[in-house]
Amino acid sequence: MRELMLCADGEQVLFNVFEAMKRHDDDPKCFRIEVVDEVIEDVFIVETPSPPLERVLVNSIDDLE
Length: 65
What we know:
By secondary structure, the protein is α+β, with helices and mostly antiparallel strands. The protein has 3 helices and 2 strands, in the order E-E-H-H-H.
């Protein structure tokens, strides 16, 4: 198997591992995937509703400030 497939939210990205290894002199930032964690966290926060009590408390604190 020479490919790595990443699927998220109905989209998929296919990585050719051997091609990436051949181009190891390229900019190392191109090979980083830390942004995946940030995107997942952002989507999780948006798509996961907070409990009603938490929403009331947070909104009340915001109103006081």
